[in-house]
Amino acid sequence: MKKHIFIVLLFSCVFSAKRVSAETPDSAALRAGAENGGMKEQFSYALYLCHNDPAGFEKAMPWFIRADEYGDAVCEYVVAQMLIQKDEGVLPALPWLIKSAAHGFFPAMNRLGELYSRKYSGVEKNYAEAERWFQIASDGGYAPATYNLGVMYLEGLGVPKDTDKAIPLLQRSGTRGMNLLRKNGLIQ
């Protein structure tokens, strides 16, 4: 749960319009903590930079990477998402997503499934890989992956079309899945 909160916080910070460039006592304390090497402090300082500095992406990335030296799945995922958001493409982000997924982070697994289920610059469509990542994250209870897996079975994307498998997956995925089932006339 904490990891999901960090991601929401990150993206709210990254896309916020509020930017200040002067260092404050709070930012100095955050920077000092980050320089002392704690992963949590490095991650917090990177988030602070994203939110408060005009050059937030560029300044935050080294702190996220330093925090990742501890092998934290959220840091790896955040670095990957930042690379994708900066239009550096999917290829530089792919190793970060794979590391995050290998550390058991379901959003990274789901993102890998999304990348493999569509054609992205430099990433070949691979439905078997997409299904594998969606299935692992779905088995862990991650609703977006359950939805994506259900769509694969509903539409026959790389797997045999199978509404008997798709319906329970989409029902389990929540409102989004239920709406898709209604739209396709599979439930009332």
Describe the structure.
There is one protein chain. The chain is mostly helical. It has two domains: 1-104, no CATH class; 123-188, no CATH class. Helices cover 69% and strands 0% of the residues. The protein is built from eleven helices and no strands. It has helices spanning 2-14, 25-35, 39-52, 56-68, 73-85, 94-102, 106-117, 127-139, 143-155, 163-172, 175-183. The protein is elongated, with a radius of gyration of 19 Å.
Quick tags:
188 residues; mainly alpha; 11 helices
Shape: elongated
Secondary-structure-based class equals: mainly alpha
- Helix share bin: 55-70%
Residues in β-strands, percent: under 5%
Flag low-confidence runs.
Answer: 1-22
Question: What is the first-to-last residue Cα distance?
Answer: 33 Å
Structural Rg: 19 Å
Question: How many structurally independent domains?
Answer: 2
Mean pLDDT: 81
Spell out the helices and strands N to C. HHHHHHHHHHH
- Count of helical stretches: 11
The largest β sheet comes out as:
none
Number of strands: 0
Brief summary:
With 188 residues, this protein is an all-alpha fold. Helices cover 69% and strands 0% of the residues.
Which secondary structure elements does this structure contain, and how are they paired or packed?
Blueprint: H1 2-14, H2 25-35, H3 39-52, H4 56-68, H5 73-85, H6 94-102, H7 106-117, H8 127-139, H9 143-155, H10 163-172, H11 175-183
